[in-house]
Amino acid sequence: MHEKGKPIAVIVVVALLGMVFAGSFLGALHKPEPHGVPVAVVGPENAVDRLGAEMDKRADGAFDLAAYETEKAARDALLDRDVDAVFVPGQGGAALIVAGATGKIENAVLTQAFQGVGQATGQPVTVEDVRPLPADDGNGVSAIFFVITTVIPAIVLAVLLAFAVPKAGAGRRVGLLAAGSVVLGGVNAWVAAGLTGALVGAPWELWGLGSLLVFAVSSFAAGALRAGGPPAAGLTVLLFIPIGVPASGGPIGPRFIPEWYAAFGEWLPVSAAINAVRNTVYFDGSAIGGPLLVLTLWAAAGLALVLVPKKTRQRGHAAPEPATSS
């Protein structure tokens, strides 16, 4: 590239990068609207259908109501992360049972919506929080920031190792990534669970989740860098940060961003890790099978990129024939 054209190229690249960041974050988070929030309603199907029709008049598709025969079954579904709230109608008044740890914004929307229905029907609605957020994390953002502050150093780990040991074999590279993952995951878990007290109650599980997250991200970034060079590594960073973070729903949650974006985000490491951390710390490990599967798949893909010999990814260019003398 001509010397005079390089500044223009830099400006264009930065502008495109800014467009990706702004488009992803603002597009996902600027207008939060609930969609399909699962709620257990204790009562017969016909009564639940009537309540659902009434709520759809207020906000079409915002809530997905499911009938449960008993309050105990509905409460169990809430703690198992099958639903995000429980509504128990009653002649003397209704009860809305929520889990504050699912997110402050979501619970505020649930409370407002069901208390609005109660006011319209003359039925007062009391709210019970069975999994409140800790006093030190009233906004419920600790899990989000724990994941973000783990993903970014994980990418740095992959890049620095590539420069520090450029001629390392695949086995040694995987070993170094694994060692770095355990160390970084442990340090961040200690900061979160011990030093700051932001995520207490499951320090060893948090260490394991942090280490798996680091390995999934760092191995894939290292594999992308090895397979496609800096452009592939750059695309990986874009996928994990400016796309992955807003696609997780961030502080407002995946139920409040465009559905297609939330569905895409479920298969990215950031969203999977946030759900795994939150469900481990606040819900005794419920519903972490899916998030663990996602992280494992990313780790497996990274391992494949790191371990497969380079020559098999160079499309087998034919070797030039030796020159012959005439």
What keywords describe this structure?
326 residues; alpha/beta; 5-stranded mixed beta sheet
Question: How are the SSEs placed, and which strands pair?
Answer:
Blueprint lengths: L4 H25 L7 E6 L2 H14 L4 E6 L2 H9 L5 E4 L5 E5 L5 H18 L3 E5 L12 H23 L5 H26 L7 H45 L11 H7 L3 H14 L6 H19 L19
Helix pairs in contact: 1-7, 5-6, 5-7, 5-9, 6-7, 7-8, 7-9, 7-10, 9-10
Order of helices and strands: HEHEHEEHEHHHHHH
In total, how many domains does the architecture comprise? 2
C-alpha Rg (nearest Å): 24 Å
The CA-CA distance between the termini, in Å, is 39 Å
How big a fraction of the residues is strand?
5-15%
Give the low-pLDDT segments: 312-321
Number of strands: 5
The major sheet is characterized as: 5 strands, mixed
Q: How confident is the prediction overall: mean pLDDT?
A: 91
Structural class: alpha/beta
Tell me the overall shape: elongated
Instruction: Give the count of helical stretches.
Output: 10
Mind explaining what this structure looks like?
With 326 residues, this protein is α/β, with parallel strands linked by helices. The chain folds into 2 domains: 37-132, D-Maltodextrin-Binding Protein, domain 2, CATH 3.40.190; 136-312, no CATH class. The protein has 10 helices and 5 strands, in the order αβαβαββαβαααααα. The protein has helices at 5-29, 45-58, 71-79, 104-121, 142-164, 170-195, 203-247, 259-265, 269-282, 289-307, and strands spanning 37-42, 63-68, 85-88, 94-98, 125-129. Mean pLDDT is 91; it is low at 312-321.
